[in-house]
Predict the structure.
Amino acid sequence: MANPETSRPAQAHTSYRLPFNVDLIAVGIGLALAVLIRLGIIHQISF
Amino acid sequence: MSTHTIPMPLAAEAQHRPTSLIATLPGIALLFTIGVLGKLMESAGTIVRTEYHMPFPQIEYVLWAILLGLLVSNTLGIATLFRPGVATYELWLKLGIVLVGARFLLQDVLHIGGLSLLLVAVELVLSLSVMTLLGRIFRLPPKLTSLLAIGSSICGVTAIMAAQGAINPDEEDTTTSIAAILTLGAIALLTFPAIGHLLRMSQQAYGMWAGLAVDNTAESIVTGSLFGQDAGRWAILAKTARSSFIGFVVLGYAVYWASRGQAAVVEHKVYFLWQKFPKFILGFLAISFLATAGFFTKQQLGSLSNLSQWAFLPAFAGVGLRTNLKDLVGQGWRPLVVGVLGEVFIAIITLGLVFWSYNHGVTR
């Protein structure tokens, strides 16, 4: 991979490993919020 | 890909860092601060224009959030303290996608999502073929070509990270392909809305196009949202359909490179597919199902939709924060040329597919 014409970015990448599965947490929070709204615990949200 | 791995192409070292929950708090605060500032800038602009009748650019909060993020990351830089939290932009993005399911009736998801799947299948075959051909013409390393093809055909950085564990490329190839995909995403952000307006596309048609043509999920949704809120919604649907193919494409490449003795053999293919499948799509479908079944009142649906907008706010800020313009231009010309040529081809093909499907009454 030492081909100069395919030179690399000056900085390589770092992956930050979060202590949870992002997909499952997103689904869990989403469904929990939906239930809370359905039960009226969370009232009208505006944006 | 392990779905909890969030790429941060801007940082200095190539390694996985375990992150504690507390360590993410400063960065999460930064994401929300920039996102809310973006929203305030939009409101301030409206007040200046309407109340004081002074000229002020009509810029949506989506663009403000990205611009403010870009400004911070390219001037001050992102301090180490904030980086773990900034990496959570993907969580907010996926939470927003799950919640926006409330805006879709299941029959729409099945109809438009089904059409998307068909268009995605065509897009997949063409983009994989063209990227592979261009990689050979420009003599890119074969695994770098594979990564660019995977990234441009499915869902950008996520797909590249998924492939990284499956085809064992050099770390440099991964970095280069991620930088190329992010550069192309930034170009799409700037060009697609203008093209959409020029062609007088409808919100739905434009959103479908953005979802089919822009690689990275975050950039795809932003590109759609810059055209309008409805366009952003349709971009999410098309993009979600596209992302669902990730396991099949990565598996195909894993089997190919294993057959050449350059990657580990995939023992349990069904498990591999499930492992790579983006699970947040199931949450999106679940909320859409509940909305269709009448589980929520109209007001509650509005609240869920607004919550999704709040979730997207830090995600949009994250797109700006993780884009370092210096890194993007320093990646070498050949991968970028291959990427640009391939992306222009994909953009034209998907635009043609969208126009065809709308002109033939395939969509409503």
Notes: Chain B has one domain: 21-359. Strands of chain B lie at 5-8, 16-18. DSSP finds 17 helices and two strands in chain B. Residues 170 and 277 of chain B are 24 Å apart (CA to CA).
